[in-house]
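The passage that follows is intended for readers who have already worked through the single-chain material. We present the inputs for a multi-component assembly, then the predicted structure in tokenized form, and finally a short commentary. You are encouraged to pause after the input and sketch how you expect the pieces to fit together before reading on.
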Amino acid sequence: MLFLAAALPILFWNGGPDSATALREAGIERVAVPAGQATGWGTGVSVEAFDPAKAVKLATPSVEYRANEATASRSPWLDANGWTLLRRPSARYYYDVPGPAAALAAAEAFSYGANAMVRTDGAGLKPFAAMLRFLRSIETLELSPVADIGFVDDGGDVAGEVLNLMLRNNLLVSIVPKPDPRLKLNVRLGSREFPMEDAQDPGGMAHTVRARLTDEKRSLRIYGTQVVLARVLRGSGRMRILLLNYDGARRAVDGLRVRVPGSFPNHRAAAAGSSSVQLLDYVTEGGATEFTVVDLSK
Amino acid sequence: MPGPYPGQVVKVHSEKSLELPEDQVNQNVVRQMLASGMKALAGDARDEDAWRRFISKDDVVGIKVNCSGAPRICSAPEVVGAIVEKLTAIGVPADHIYVYERFENQLRTVPYAKYLPSGVSIWAAEESRGTILGYDPRTYVETSFFGEEDTRSNLARLVSEKLTKIINVPNAKEHQASGVTGCLKNIAYGNFSNVARSHQFEKTHTYSLIGTLAATEPVRSRVVLHIMDGLRGVWHAGPFSNDPRFRFYPKLMMFGTDPVAMDRQLIDLIDNKRKAEGAISVWDRSREHLGDNRDINKNRYIREPGHIEYASRLGLGVYDQQKIKVQTVEL
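Having made your guess, compare it with the prediction:
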């Protein structure tokens, strides 16, 4: 998958042409608007018509801690859309995200190369625009998503939730039409190894998949946080790791450690909202590269 | 560990160590208890000589306190201050001494600074709860209990990077998950990150994790002395001390280099108190006693006091009471 500037999400905006100055001041150069409002904008802001009803609506990416709710684990609940974006890579998507979480929506869509519109409110405008500037600054490279697991998706609800929970556990998954022998593990619900009956507990099934793969074979491990999800891309001897803090609208992650197989002695790091990113304890040994991200706010 | 005195424990008791109901520690009495305990443990006539058996003036010394029940039940600042007095008396520079704990929000509730000379550092691994930045990314125990994503427990950076010796100063407390929390748990769960995952569910993994962490280098070789502050204690719903009904006052300090032998005494101390209060034993494993622990016969977990015997099998000390020599000093 090639990540181009064209894959940047677009602001869906209900305001009329009189809001063009505010948009430009916020750093927004391109918007989508409801049909019938696409004229009269003049220059400075590129405008296209968009009907949200014709797009796949996505959830607001966020974290719910549910501290007062009895759950099977104390892990926070992440509302993440990776499973939907992975299922329909060519679809057009629509987020309706008020406030600073609009920035996370933009980052999530970008990390999957999704064609997405993001509607936000006044409070979300500047964070969204700042995220767009950051995403635009990322060097365009020919990179493909890294996957350890091939998932034969039947398109059903159960499969969707299993896919969701695998991604939320930072298992790197690719949807395949049939088992792909190049991948480390292939999963087809209903098979002898992954019975549909067991998949009624999607979390348990995600753990089963992880156990079958084994942590040693995983192309990504993240330690020290339960609210950061990653995408890993690779090509031409380079690897790109995109880290998304799903709680970023509220609080920073105060340190997380990343491990990837392979030796990558040289690195560059960038973070939204920060002019410099410090990677601590960067080591390449034992056939793997590890580093600590000191602060991840978004 | 178990150091030069395996299977040996010194208990020093003084009724004058704690004024009740004021709950006020008498630091002069604590100093006497400390001197008596150290002399009895090492067999020296002068307590400075006893201290020099464990610590040299060139060491960088960490005092591992326990603040999980703070501010009421914790390693008392009067005890910690008296220990620091002895360290400086044998020549350890104040700026080579660290009083440390994992959680800054617990540590700051205890007025340690008031009892410490200028130059002693007070350090917490987690300035904000959950941060991994205070831990050494290269020293960890990796294990998966229930499919958790973060499978590592990392050692505090202070321990791996700075300290040459550690004095462990735990309390005498019941623990809902591990049965009791004394020497072993304070150096294990008190030095490593991401350990609460071992007791997420009613059947816990404290049985094996506590000893495993305590036996991990460099913790094992750097912890040279255990001084248990049992002036105050918790006999139920520990390690916290939210309910005053469950506090008690043994007015006791224990000394040793063998954490297993000391914690073996702690089991009896806690269980005898529980028996006196009409509570079930820490050894009880029946599911009928799982529940809201405001009731003294209920608990949220199946307790695992067997973690102490498990640690003995890792070579950390002597568990068999028949083989443990206990000296008792009454002041």
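Commentary: Residues 122-137 of chain A form the longest helix (16 residues). The radius of gyration of chain A is 20 Å. How closely did your sketch match?
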